[in-house]
Amino acid sequence: MHVIPRRLKRVLCNRSGVFGSKICNVDEPYEIIEHPADVGFIAYGRTLSELFENAGLAMCSLACALEKIEERVERRIVARGRDAESLLYAWLAEILAVADGEQLVFRRVTTLHIREPRDGVAGEAHGIAHGEAFDRERHAAGTYIKAVTLHQFAIERAPQGFRARVFLDL
């Protein structure tokens, strides 16, 4: 079962290129997309920083309903990558590793600093994941996410910002 926030409105894009040619509404943080074997999302952001935050939010929302998660703990997230895609992949994989390793659920992830990869120099993303220990009594568990995958993984610069497509292994 996939937990999808009630407030989420699906954003529709025409198909061409990686994501579509129609302008997508970056006012929505993400949309959940289904796949025969996995689940995924398309995250949006006016800036690369906002894209990373919204991608983290999308992944966290699939793992647990966000409404009842309190921000009792913070975990530092640091990722490195040689290009924008590998940087976002590492960012999401690190969030997942921390959550899984410590049995935490996160309500949101904030970026502190992102250095975009350029001219052969790897990029870095630094941020904080906000959440608490998973409590079966209070939290509605969603989908158990085993890993972030590279299947159809892509980031695209759109006229109004960025969008990324991510699939998760369940």
What does this structure look like?
The chain has two helices and eight strands. The N and C termini lie close together (11 Å). The longest helix is centred in the middle third of the chain and has 19 residues. The protein has 170 residues and is an alpha+beta fold. The protein is 21% helix and 35% strand.
* Low-confidence blocks of residues: 1-18
Radius of gyration: 15 Å
- Write down the overall geometry: globular
Largest sheet: 5 strands, antiparallel
| Total number of distinct structural domains | 1
Average of the residue pLDDT scores: 86
The helix/strand order is: EEHEHEEEEE
Look at the helices and sheets and give the structural class: alpha+beta
CATH class: Alpha Beta
The number of distinct β-strands equals 8
**Ends distance:** 11 Å
Relevant CATH superfamily: Archease domain
Please name the defining characteristics of this protein:
5-stranded antiparallel β-sheet, single chain, globular, Archease, Possible Chaperone, Chain: A, domain 1, 170 residues, alpha+beta, 3-stranded antiparallel β-sheet
In short:
By secondary structure, this protein is an alpha+beta fold. It has helices at 48-63, 84-102, and strands at residues 30-34, 39-45, 73-81, 104-115, 123-133, 147-148, 154-158, 161-169.
